[in-house]
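Hey team,

Filing this mostly as a record. A colleague (T.K.) asked me to run one chain through the structure pipeline before their review meeting, and I want the input and output archived in the tracker in case anyone asks later how it was produced. No errors, nothing strange. Just documentation.

Input sequence:
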Amino acid sequence: MILVAVDLFGTLIPLETDHLAHRMLAEAVCRAAGCDPREFEEAYWRAVEVAGDSSLAVFRSFEELCRARGLRNVFSREELEYLHAWSHIEAAREMGELPYARPFLASLKGRGAIVGVVSDAAPGVPRGILRALDLDTLVNEVVASGECGFKKPDPRLLEALVARVGARPSRVIVVGDSPRDVAMARAFGAISVALNPVDGASYVARNLAEALRIIIEILEG
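Output structure:
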């Protein structure tokens, strides 16, 4: 059994969806709270650098803004988490998947590979995005860092994916656009296919079509 672990942001969907999502979130939150969306966005990006966790950063940045501006906090943490997930799903729906994402996943499934998505994201966000883009049926399992408590390049994300698959694969291939994807693959002992030139990558592909050709060669080798 071959397991292909695919990154989400920057690999299957544009990286820009992350920024669009947080603009949408800032506008929705500040419309209700009476604050400046730009201030909320700036507070979020500061908070995420410290917190590491995106959902926690949303909550902390809104609290910070309310204190600084003397505003009443009109959202619970659960409500902010819901709005955060909603904004990511709507942003992905608006921008769509990257070219060749759909045939890439479909071809892997058709060749008998187990396909998983591994993403640094809040719980529910990757599944929601895949469902919104009608890609969920092409993926066997999804692992989000927010569900596990650790982020890339921690190889425990891949361990969690293997555990959910329910069987130890003979080979694991990681496809992603970031050095963190390559480092995670190396730490796990997996093959890496990088969509950008990354030191230490097993293979480098210019796009998903080329990545698919590389994976097919690996499968048939």
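Quick notes for T.K.: DSSP finds ten helices and six strands in the chain. Residues 2-15+97-220 form a domain with the Rossmann fold fold (CATH 3.40.50.1000).
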